[in-house]
Design a protein that fits this description.
Blueprint lengths: L4 E5 L6 H9 L17 E7 L2 E7 L12 H14 L2 E7 L6 H11 L5 E6 L4 H9 L9 E3 L8 H8 L16 E6 L6 H9 L17 E7 L2 E7 L13 H14 L3 E7 L6 H12 L3 E7 L11 H12 L8 E3 L9 H14 L5 H14 L13 E8 L4 E6 L7 H15 L7 E6 L2 H13 L1
Parallel strand pairs: 1-3, 1-4, 4-5, 5-6, 7-9, 7-10, 10-11, 11-12, 14-15
Antiparallel strand pairs: 2-3, 8-9, 13-14
């Protein structure tokens, strides 16, 4: 069976995200002294003794108010519980028992799932037991005094928790998966796209900009392939972002790009490519990630005819010219139009991103390219010369070209060589890095002999 799941629930600002960070051993969940920072359910890998499991951070539960995101947060928490083997109900030991805690306890009793009460913010071992004692009144089991920040008491809590989890030998390790980061400006439809992939309300969707704050991981299985979709916060211009939840959310989005294999660059069809879209696309290129350009809300474009898609494609290509290798697809997350085809393009980009080509094939392409178009010659009559090339790494594919002098190859010729590689080898959906390295003839012969032997 897959990794078991443990949901962390409670009212706002009791320290759920700090506790999740401690269990996961990394500061991925956003922690900020403000109610409502966490909205969607976010999954993190955790372990205790021989048990490995996923811990789910959920938004703060409030039952007396139905404004803004609160009903959606409750829905996300309920979905997390439905997937879980156990629930950790977190309360605040410094605030003591509140009416909101009692409401959540009554709600949890109806879920038919093991519940452990974690009394957080009990930093003092002496006061911890007395702080926790009040929560016996909830009537759902022993309250455990803990400190999510310092780790006090978490061992005792986890010892009881793992008794409700399946035996470690019955849990299978996750197979290789393709990691996909969904990036873009606020309100371009990233969360709607994730929900369209899954056919469920995985992320909260709202017309309010900045709804998504954490990077939200979700696994999708199609055939024999596994994908990890990462929904990210909308990224605005730096000068528009204040220090706080949005600032942390954008940092998580940048980290999501870094840990992904392929990036879905989502663009609003009604607004077109903006300066911020260009900056985000540059970020994906700099990180060396595969990329698919997804033009969302295509259903909302009015007065379309048979030429509209071609005209729009030409416009996008001219504005994102540095992503000329990235496939372009027009979709509607609202209606599901062409959404399924995105993963077909992801498969190709992910395969090309890890592709390796032999040195002999690379040098055949170089030989043909030079035969058709000789390297430039300087005013002094000195011509550039490419001795040989070899691929040194993948993710993205990186080829080193050994030449007599890198300065003798201008940008136009470098772009020409890259085009020859792409025309001959493809590399669809992935950046291709060429490193031009100067080398004298004797060193070239020695290096070529070593490469031939390998």
């Amino acid at each position: 069976m897959p990794l078991p799941i443990v949901a962390i629930v409670g009212r706002p600002n009791v320290g759920k995200s700090a506790f999740v960070n401690r269990l996961a051993g990394q500061q991925d969940a956003i922690v900020y002294d403000q109610p409502g920072v966490t909205r969607d359910r976010t999954y993190r890998r955790a372990f205790w003794r021989d048990h490995e499991f996923n811990v789910v951070d959920t938004g703060g539960l409030v039952f007396e108010d139905n404004t803004e995101f609160l009903p959606l947060i409750r829905q996300q928490a309920l979905l997390a519980i439905s997937q879980s083997q156990a629930v950790i109900f977190m309360v605040d030991g410094q605030d003591g028992l509140t009416a909101a805690d009692e409401q959540i306890a009554d709600w949890l009793r109806q879920q038919n799932i093991p519940i452990l009460v974690a009394v957080n913010k009990c930093e003092s071992p002496d006061l911890g037991l007395s702080q926790a004692a009040e929560f016996w009144e909830l009537g759902i089991g022993e309250p455990f005094p803990i400190s999510g920040i310092h780790g006090n008491g978490t061992g005792e809590l986890l010892d009881i928790l793992v008794q409700h989890l399946p035996a470690p030998e019955t849990v299978t390790e996750a197979e290789d998966e393709i990691k996909i980061a969904i990036i873009g400006r606020p309100n371009v439809g990233k969360s709607s796209l994730l929900n369209a992939f899954l056919g469920e309300q995985r992320s909260i969707v709202s017309p309010i900009a900045g709804t998504t704050r954490d990077a939200i991981d979700t696994q999708v299985i199609r055939g024999d392939r596994k994908y990890r979709l990462i929904d990210t916060a909308g990224i605005r211009r730096k000068r528009s972002v204040n220090y706080g939840p949005e600032f942390f959310g954008i940092n998580r989005a940048f980290k999501a790009i870094n840990r992904s294999d392929v990036v879905l660059m989502v663009i609003d069809a009604l607004e077109g490519v903006t300066d911020q879209d260009q900056k985000l696309a540059h970020r994906a290129v700099e990180e060396g990630r595969g990329c698919i350009i997804v033009v969302n809300k295509w259903d909302a474009v009015e007065d379309k005819d048979s030429y509209t898609i071609y005209e729009y494609t030409e416009k996008v290509r001219s504005q994102l010219y540095f992503l000329d290798y990235a496939p372009l697809i027009f979709v509607s997350a609202l209606t599901g139009q062409r959404v399924a085809k995105i993963l077909d393009q992801v498969d190709i980009a992910a395969e090309q991103h890890v592709r390796r080509v032999t040195t002999s094939v690379i040098n055949e392409i170089i030989e043909d390219a030079v035969a058709w178009h000789s390297p430039p010659t300087s005013r002094q009559g000195k011509q550039g010369r490419i001795y040989y090339g070899t691929q040194v790494s993948s993710q993205p594919p990186t080829i080193v070209l050994f030449v007599n002098d890198p300065k003798r190859f201008n940008d136009n010729y470098r772009r020409y060589i890259e085009r020859q590689f792409r025309e001959s080898l493809g590399f669809t959906g992935t950046p291709l890095r060429l490193i031009w390295r100067g080398k004298n003839q004797r060193e070239v012969e020695r290096s070529l002999n070593r490469a031939t032997k390998v």
